[in-house]
Amino acid sequence: MTFTSTLRGSENEYWPGSPSDFDPVALPAVSGLRKTVDGGKGFHLAEKGGKEIMRRCRVMRCSSILGVLVLALMAETVQPSRGEEPKQFGTPKGDEGTRIFMATEHPHYSGQFHLKGQKATLVGGLQDPSPWDHLDHAGKHLKSLPGTIEIDVDERANTGRAVAELKDGTDQYRIVFDRFAAAAPYQDGGIATRLYEHGDSGNGDPLYPKTWLYLAGWGRADVFKNGQPLYKDYSAHFMVMERSRDPKTHEVRYPEKRTLPGGETDPAGMEIDLWVRSKEANAKNFPPYEVFLHLYWDEVTWR
User: Which residues, in sequence order, are CB contacts of 116 under 8 Å at separation 6+?
Assistant: First the structure.
């Protein structure tokens, strides 16, 4: 369509497009316009001061186009496409969200763990006659002992050792746990980090509540009493885990009916547990082994 003015003495100015392309503020009403056909390619505007009106139209049109381009560029910068590298720190890539990553998904993961546990507690006794309960969920047979545990392992290589030293009366005990091997896939070769075990986790036995393991090891240990071998090549398991006992009652509140999916542990605290057991069974005991040593340390230091 073409628009031309019938005003006498006006100059004709051609502008590509259509009248709807113009801002009504920039293009004031012009009297005497008449419509003519121009193949839909443009229109003519003529009146007194017509060139000034067209100049204003060009300025407004360019300003609008520039504004749209700036907004589009800003939107592209603030909201990167899925799968692209983030444009700023802390922006998740694609659908990864804020899930808990495996240790090996971190680019600078060393696999080196160095921890120390203090304030040792013996669950049950070292020379208890059968039958006995060395898990003691009720917390009635706990004995504080002077002693520590030091864990120095390479989780990636499944090497290192955990060494516990404690004194019970006049006897000195030393437990050396330095052979690591997996009996199940979740044990990741013998030393693992960042996983759930026990309870209804589907990993390990259900004798203890489900707990998050910051670090754990499975394998074989030797126990020495006053420097002499007491137990040789016994099955062993250490756990750097969530606090399992109530700090006041010392009770393990397990098993109990739960309405929440988390285990019966307290993630506000941490402890190190060490289990050493014989291969010989004894159904009178709990757990049902001839020997089951259970110690824990509830002061944990990461070194």
Answer: 148, 149, 150, 151, 300, 301, 303
Is a pLDDT exceeding 80 seen at residue 24?
no
**CA distance linking residue 226 with residue 167, whole number of Å:** 10
Residue 83 has pLDDT above 60, yes or no: no
Predicted confidence band of residue 295 (pLDDT cuts 50, 70, 90) = very high
Domain that holds residue 263: 103-302
Do residues 172 and 35 share a domain?
no
User: Do 136 and 268 share a domain, yes or no?
Assistant: yes
Same domain for 116 and 16: no
Phi, psi torsion values for 61, nearest 5 degrees: -65, -45
Statement to judge: residues 179 and 247 lie in one domain: yes
